[in-house]
Structure formats: C-alpha cells, structure tokens
Write a structure and sequence with these properties.
The longest helix is centred in the last third of the chain and has 18 residues, at about 220-235. The chain has nine helices and nine strands. The protein has a six-stranded antiparallel β-sheet with strand order 1-7-4-9-3-2. It has a three-stranded antiparallel β-sheet with strand order 6-5-8, with no helix packed on it. The protein has a domain at about 10-190: q2cbj1_9rhob like domain (Jelly Rolls, Sandwich). The protein is of the alpha+beta class. It is globular and about 70 Å long. Helix 7 crosses helix 8. It has helices spanning about 10-20, 30-35, 45-50, 50-60, 60-70, 140, 220-235, 240-245, 255, and strands at about 20-25, 40-45, 80-85, 110-115, 125-130, 150-155, 160-165, 170, 180-190. The chain binds 2-oxoglutaric acid and fe (ii) ion. 2-oxoglutaric acid binds near residues 84, 98 and 170.
Length: about 270
C-alpha cells in the first residue's frame, strides 16, 4: 500500500472544518500542467486514471498529505474525473452545490479542483463561498443568488489545487475572454473510521477552537455553524455521537444523556 504522510495539524484541520476548503498553490509540476492542457473537455477518465496523473497530482505529497490527514490511511483514490473547459466568454454559472449539502457533519468525500494554467479575474474563475458547505438550502433559491458577501474567486497560479468539502457552494464567475480555462475535478472518498491521525503533538484531543464566523452569517446561523464545526471536529477525532454530545458546551450532557430502549425493562 502506498504510504502517504499526513501534513495537517490540529489547527489546519480546525480551519478546514470551518472554511470547507484548502488551497494548495502551484503544487503540480509546470511541465505536467502543460501536458494536461491538451486534454479535451468533458469526462477525463483516461487522464485522471493514468499512472502519471496518480504520481504528479493525486498522490503528489502535498495534495496526498491533506487527503491522508482528513480521510485516514486507506482512502479511495479517484480513477476518473471531469475536465471543465471553457473557451468562450460566459456570463457565469448559477451558484450551486454538487452534493447533498446541509446534511450531517461527517467528512466522507473531498472534491478537488485542479487548475493546469493560471486563472485570472477575467478568465471565469471558480467562485466558492467559504463556510457554506454545511448550510441547508433550497437549490432553486440558491440559483437566483448574485454576488455574495465573502465569496472567493479562485484566481490562481498554474498547478493550484483546491481541496473542498463536498457540498461547498460554488459557481463559475464571469469570463470576459476567449482564453482556454481548464479545471479538472475529481473526488477522494473515506474508507477508514476517523481517528485524529494527522500531525499531532499530544494524544489528548483539544476542544474545537472557534474560528471567526462567516461575513454573511447572522447570529443564529453563526451559532448553528459553530455547533456543526464542533461536531465535525469531534467526529474527525473519532469521538462517538454520545461522546461528542458530552463535549458540546451548548447542550449540557444532563439534557441529552439517553438509554437505548433495548436495555430498558419495566
Ligand atoms: O468550472 C468550474 O469552475 C465549476 C464547474 C461546476 O461547478 C460544475 O460544472 O458543476
Ligand atoms: Fe459544480
């Protein structure tokens, strides 16, 4: 089995839990980026499934290190992906999420966007909304949203990879030119139960340290985000739902302690 070393610390993981993405700047070799640019748009099984792509991108140490940190030692490596190629000017794309966002707080899939060329502000950058990955939303409504406070255009250098929590809100921003813009998308999946086996300094699990709330959240949504972050963190650290509830400072254990029905006799 390929031995991929984790690279993230507790703080890195806490950041990812809150933001729902991590950007690795220009981590793919420039010669390999050039090679990927010749691929035609659409399904990219041949390219993503090739041994070269495995070595240069999928298990490249910085990319693999993040995936290994978040998904454990034996994650599922993609054999295929999709090449989102845009050659014409476009107004953009509606905001959407690819997955079933707003449900659960587990991290079982990481979706990656790889850019084999520089993407400038006028090249139709992917836009993401940091922190949106857990928010339940009606997709029909979402598709009508325009510019959102806190949105982040992925204006990037060639070889950059964004690793996102599946479900993050995203779209394509306006493209004002005829330059080819490539984004190759692929996903990794979890096999192992989570167990806080990234880079740690001690065995004791720290409590989740609050991250700033998103600029677009009101008090009540910030509260919900924070509660979800705490549960995601606890889950990633291998705590059971019961243990996580016991840690939850907003719902004291005396309110949530329970007994399974099948252990009760009366
Ligand atoms: O090409 C991009 O930047 C994003 C495309 C996308 O989100 C999609 O096709 O689902
Ligand atoms: Fe999408």
């Amino acid at each position: 089995m390929a031995n991929i070393k984790p690279t993230m610390t507790d703080d890195d993981v806490m950041d990812f839990v809150a933001r729902g993405y991590i950007l690795l700047d220009a981590v793919v070799d420039s010669e390999f980026n050039k090679l990927c640019l010749n691929t035609k748009g659409g399904p990219a099984k041949k390219l993503v499934g090739s041994p070269e792509f495995l070595r240069e991108v999928l298990l490249q140490p910085e990319i693999g290190g993040v995936i290994r940190s978040l998904l454990g030692p034996n994650f599922l490596v993609p054999n295929g992906g999709h090449h989102h190629l845009i050659e014409q000017p476009v107004v953009g794309m509606d905001w959407h999420s690819d997955g079933i966002s707003g449900q659960g707080f587990e991290i079982n899939e990481l979706q990656c966007y790889y850019y084999p060329q520089d993407v400038g502000p006028e090249d139709g950058p992917t836009m993401i909304l940091p922190g949106s990955h857990c928010r339940a939303v009606n997709r029909d409504a979402l598709a009508h949203y325009g510019n959102l406070m806190g949105q982040l255009p992925l204006v990037v250098k060639a070889g950059t990879v964004a690793i996102t929590r599946y479900g993050i809100w995203h779209c394509v921003g306006p493209k004002l030119n005829y330059t080819r813009r490539s984004m190759i998308k692929f996903s990794y999946f979890r096999c192992d139960k989570p167990s806080r086996d990234w880079v740690t300094e001690s065995d004791s699990i720290p409590e989740y340290r609050d991250r700033p709330s998103c600029p677009y959240t009101s008090g009540v949504e910030s509260y919900r985000d924070l509660r979800r972050r705490i549960h995601t963190w606890n889950w990633l650290c291998g705590l059971t739902q019961e243990e996580s509830m016991a840690y939850d400072r907003w719902r004291p254990a005396y309110e949530t302690e329970t007994t399974p029905l099948n252990s009760i006799t009366f």
